[in-house]
Amino acid sequence: MSTQNTWLITGCSTGFGRYIASHLLERGERVVVTARKVEQVQDLARLGQAVVLPLDVTDAEQVKAVVAEAEHVFGSVDVLVNNAGIGHFAAVEETDPQSARRLFEVNFFGTAHMIHAVLPGMRQRRRGMIVNLTSIGGLAGFPAVGYYCASKFAVEGLSETLRAEVEPLGIRVMTVEPSAFRTEWAGSAAEVAEPIDDYDMTAGEARRAYHASVGHQAGDPARAAAAIHTAVTAPRPPKWLLLGNDAFEVATNKLADMQAEFRAWEATARGADFPKPNADRLGGG
């Protein structure tokens, strides 16, 4: 990628989005800083070459307008960082349909809206990168965040298919899977109003742990922002970028567990196909 890129980042008012935007601007990159409430990000505009635009990723028309404005001002969007997202703490059974749909509207369809908006320009230029922040919860499921994990798993699946479709056109796709970082996410997530007692030792315990972790998470968002910048600008960017010791341990342990189970049930898996024709009989008279 060129030495200076134009980055479009969603959800810059807090958390990863703010840290990523700040890191990039301080290093001379051009950044389109977006947030639903632009008054919360005006300070970022003073750090470098920034354009601040209001954006709700669930509004497909506003998404198109933001991308068009970014391309008008800077000539291109070289890197899209899909960071905007929300959480919700509840067991699967405790999650009401409206909350579940809201998670998908923001975390999945919001990401999809951004992808659809930047692809025409990236295809025309035959270059670009789409960075989708999912979560370690996009690779492994955890109690109390079932629908959140489902929305992030969905982004992982979309990203893998997208990668296969756009890499031949010069466009890269990276997913980023952080574990717990010291951001506002856990403290700002909505949660179930009337918990079910049967889930107190699973989802209930997890909810309490999430709240207790606020301000004590192991992950440093400033280091995460630097890691994302390094990965995107590397000669061979990764397809998956784990962030945090917990993310690395969870992901690699799950891979090992899956491989062991696949091997244990290999005969059953392979036996589900139609039997192959007998080569000897085919060659006989």
From TrEMBL:
The keyword Transmembrane applies. CDD domains: 17beta-HSD-like_SDR_c. GO terms for molecular function: oxidoreductase activity. PROSITE patterns: ADH_SHORT. Residues 5-179 form the Ketoreductase domain. The chain crosses the membrane at residues 129-148. Coiled coil: none annotated. Keywords: Membrane, Oxidoreductase, Transmembrane, Transmembrane helix. SMART domains: PKS_KR (SM00822). It comes from the Bacteria. PANTHER family: SHORT CHAIN DEHYDROGENASE, SHORT-CHAIN DEHYDROGENASE_REDUCTASE FAMILY PROTEIN. Belongs to the short-chain dehydrogenases/reductases (SDR) family. This is Short-subunit dehydrogenase. The lineage of its organism: Bacteria, Pseudomonadati, Pseudomonadota, Gammaproteobacteria, Pseudomonadales.
